[in-house]
Design a protein that fits this description.
The complex is a heterodimer of chains A (about 230) and B (about 290). Chain A is α+β, with helices and mostly antiparallel strands. Chain A contains twelve helices and eight strands. Chain B starts with a strand and ends with a helix. Classes of the chains: A alpha+beta (about 230), B alpha/beta (about 290). Chains A and B meet through helix 1 and strand 1 of A and strand 4, strand 5, helix 4, helix 5 and helix 7 of B.
């Protein structure tokens, strides 16, 4: 039995910076900045990314992205969590706690590429995946073993090759997410409304995303919000 | 399911042997019902078995809890603290909830499998740290799920409003999310004075008592529960008879079903069959499988 867990917990609680009382900035103000809209939008579609990945996808410099992320955290639109020693970010209220690590994994480059190939071309062999992804056999093999262990894909041997197929894990999670999507949409609209100004308006809605119209004058800017992040990876 | 002793005299038989290891138990009660004493006894029993103890106090201060523990006859509590086998943590609800949101996963990653006993007394300020009910559920659910990986958790919960009414949001959310729920009822009766009764509302994967049991708080012993008839060995006449009749009718049901039923019967007691006779049960089984 490892000892010292009590002292470690005590230290963790003492050392932690207690944030000043949560700042609920005006919802309209916080998203008046284009960079913040882009970051938040990207995180709703692909939650649980680190700053480097957010910076790459939004084409906003990492330092700038970090500053905007800090403001979004202070306004309680996104939360930070540590996974494997890295700080990752996701929208508050959108991601089930138990799937934070799953989304972090899904956003990793080899996983994202190979999973996309398996979903697009079920039955591909390791060699075919290696050729299409331009990744080494070793990298593909390592990633595929990992994805099988996480039940994201299944492997079937046809005698000479091992072929990979998508499992129902993500689609099941996506289907079961409907109520949460609804709740998150209500939560976000309420939060934006509480910020004052004009009420945000949904101008377009699908099962996986909504487009909101925001701004002091209606229609000043729009923001795309993912409401079912599992669908991004299907 | 591995059971660990609760530390409360008379409670283990009511919980089918004790508290489930690596589970989360919520103890609900009004002021003065003995929640903190319960949590202290739970920690003490773990220390006696060589487990580490963590007492997260979100209300009373450390000195007060230690003083009361000593008054209850637990003088060696000071030695456990000095040896760092028992750690008291004073925190506010906001501090602890922030810790849960931001630091708990990495903490759990480091200390998974530590097999400690953790008391959180009371859980109520953590609930109040967030106002949105949805967030409350997320926060408590996440906390219980993660802390279970580090050890066995016991959280106390204040009972507000009408005594015995557990339908309020603040009690319903943790009750749904916990593996076990124990309700400490303490009330004044106009004729018989102070009454204390304990009821196990739920205990997952266990054949727990469904009755109310009187308990008292004794100086030097803490909470002591009167298990009543719960100590009586259960009768197994009906499953034994059904087993015998199953053997006699072996050819009338599929062999795989026959084997499964024999295994299931090992775990059953007379009370599980309600008022059904062995003949009724066998007839229903055969009817189900015979064309």
């Amino acid at each position: 039995m490892s000892r010292g867990v009590g002292k470690a917990l005590e230290s963790a609680l003492k050392e932690k910076d207690i944030p000043e009382k949560t700042v609920h900035r005006k919802g309209i103000d916080i998203f008046s900045n284009r960079c913040r809209r882009a970051i938040f939008s990207e995180l709703t579609l692909s939650p649980c990314m680190n700053i480097a990945e957010i910076s790459r996808r939004t084409e906003i410099k990492a330092n700038t992205a970090g500053w905007h992320i800090e403001r979004l955290i202070k306004s309680s639109y996104i939360v930070e969590r540590r996974v494997g020693g890295r700080r990752i970010y996701f929208p508050e209220g959108l991601v089930p706690s138990e799937d934070v690590t799953l989304f972090y994994t899904l956003n990793q480059f080899p996983v994202r590429v190979l999973l996309s190939l398996v979903f697009g071309n079920p039955g591909n062999s390791q060699s075919e995946l290696s050729e299409k992804s331009k990744m080494s056999h070793q990298s593909v093999s390592k990633t595929m073993i990992y994805l099988v262990s996480k039940e994201l894909i299944s492997s079937v041997s046809d005698g000479s090759h091992i072929r990979y197929y998508p499992t129902k894990l993500l689609s099941d999670k996506s289907e079961n997410f409907y109520n949460r999507s609804k709740r998150y949409t209500e939560f976000l609209l309420k939060k934006l409304k509480e910020g004052g100004g004009r009420e945000p308006k949904i101008v377009k809605k699908s099962v996986e995303r909504i487009i909101l119209e925001l701004g002091p004058k209606r229609g000043e800017y729009t923001m795309e919000i993912g409401i079912n992040p599992y669908m991004t990876f299907l | 399911m591995n059971k660990i002793k609760s530390g409360i005299f008379g409670l283990n038989p009511l919980l089918d042997g004790g508290i489930n290891e690596n589970s989360a138990t919520v103890v609900i009660g009004c002021s003065g019902a003995g929640k903190t004493t319960f949590a202290t006894q739970f920690i003490r029993r773990g220390l006696e078995s060589g487990q580490e103890g963590i007492f997260v106090s979100l209300d009373e201060n450390k000195e007060q809890i230690i003083r009361e523990a000593v008054e209850m006859g637990w003088k060696s509590i000071v030695d456990y603290i000095e040896d760092e086998h028992l750690v008291f943590i004073d925190a506010s609800g906001l501090e602890f909830s922030t810790f849960i949101k931001k630091e708990l996963p990495s903490f759990v990653a480091d200390w998974k499998g530590a097999n400690a006993r953790i008391s959180i007394d009371p859980l109520t300020p953590v609930m109040w740290a967030v106002t949105d009910r949805y967030e409350q559920r997320e926060l408590i659910g996440f906390m219980l799920k993660e802390t279970r990986k580090v050890g066995t958790v016991l959280a106390t919960l204040e009972e507000h409003g009408t005594a015995g009414d557990l339908s309020g949001t603040e009690t319903v959310i943790p009750m749904y999310l916990a593996d076990s729920v124990i309700h400490l009822k303490s009330y004044l009766d106009s004729e018989s004075g102070l009454q204390r009764k304990l009821k196990i509302v739920k205990c997952r994967n266990s054949r727990h008592s469904k009755m109310e049991h009187k308990y008292s708080i004794m100086k030097g012993l803490g909470l002591v529960v009167n298990p009543g008839g719960a100590r009586t060995p259960p009768s197994r006449d009906v499953p034994t008879q059904v087993r015998k009749m199953l053997e006699e009718n072996k050819g009338r049901i599929p062999s795989s079903v026959h084997q499964r039923l024999l295994e299931v019967l090992e775990e059953l007691r007379d009370e599980d069959f309600m008022e059904m006779s062995p003949e009724d049960i066998i007839e229903e089984i055969i009817t189900e499988y015979e064309d």
